Amino acid sequence: MKTASDMIPPQEDGRATDFTAQKTFADISEAHDFYKKSVARLFNVNEWHNYAGPGSSKFQLFNNQGDPTGGYVVEGALIAIDLPIPGSNAGDGLEWVMVEQIDTLESPQGDEEFVTITVRPIPEPHNTDAQIAHFYKEVSTSTFIVKRIGCTVTAGVHGRNEMPNNNGVGMHDKIRNTIVALSARIGLAGPQWKKLVNGLIGDI
User: Fold this and answer.
1) What pTM was computed for the model?
2) How many distinct structural domains can be found in the chain?
3) Which residues contact 129 (CB under 8 A, 6 or more apart)?
4) Is the distance from CB of 184 to CB of 137 less than 8 angstroms?
5) Is position 151 within any domain?
6) Any idea what the CATH number is for the domain that residue 26 is in?
7) With contact defined as beta carbons under 8 Å apart, do 48 and 40 qualify?
8) Is 21 helix (H, G, I), strand (E, B) or coil?
9) Does the pLDDT at position 176 exceed 70?
10) CA 42 to CA 72: how far, in whole Å?
């Protein structure tokens, strides 16, 4: 049987990061009810900033044509990320990713159930020069997970193959992307992701 960990792309090059938060409940029924509410938060990308709290990155959901949209995230959707730092030229000030894969396992009474969302950097959808609009290369991925194992609900963000996007972009973005990626490497991105995973399983 597949597990949530199986949905995280393999680590091959660059850096891997993992940020998690969890809560444990008295019984599976209570844990399942909380899990379902946390999954609703996970799918509601436009509210991630509010769940994470002040000082966190802002996320905006777009359809596959590059138009802002509401509702829950689906495969093929785009997400624009507004970091609390100077943005890239390629992304018109934003980081852009595409929702590459969504996986689910529903098992209300079973040992494990989960939802995973894997995203990958892409060009800004209205930019014709195809420069990746993100400080990481297109080989990099982030997988967002909400899972329940037994009576414990966990939210996580798992980065794989994280490498600075400093090839094929303008000089401003080359310098900026390298600095941002190196800052993430020394731990400055950790508080952002910790805020998000804590918000996904915060008081509901």
Assistant:
1) 0.89
2) 1
3) 90, 123
4) no
5) yes
6) 3.30.530
7) no
8) strand
9) no
10) 9
Residue 118's identity, in one-letter code, is T
Q: Answer yes or no: is 131 within a domain.
A: yes
**167 burial type by CB count under 10 A (0-12 exposed, 13-18 middle, 19+ buried):** exposed
Only one residue has tokens 């195809």, namely: 130
Dihedral sign (CA 81, 127, 100, 14): negative
Helix/strand/coil for 147: strand
Q: Which two tokens stand for residue 202?
A: 């915060």
Residue 146 region by backbone torsions, left for phi larger than 0, else alpha for psi between -120 and 50, else beta:
beta
> Rounded CA gap, 191 and 62, in Å?
25
Q: Are 114 and 147 in contact (CB under 8 A)?
A: yes
Q: In whole angstroms, what is the distance from residue 47 CA to residue 44 CA?
A: 6
Classified as helix, coil or strand, 45 is helix
Burial class (CB in 10 A: 0-12, 13-18, 19+), 196: buried
**For the segment 124-136, what is each residue's pLDDT rounded down to a tens digit?**
998 877 788 877 8
Q: What is the pLDDT of residues 97-119, one digit of tens each?
A: 999 999 999 988 889 999 999 99
Is 170 part of any domain? yes
Is 2 part of a structural domain of the chain? no
Residue 71: DSSP 8-state: S
Query: Please, which residues have CB within 8 angstroms of residue 163's CB and are 6 or more apart in sequence?
Result: 13, 14, 15, 136, 137, 139, 140, 181
Q: What is the DSSP secondary-structure string of 78-124? A: EEEEE-SS---TTTTTSEEEEEEEEEEE--TTSSEEEEEEEEEE-B-
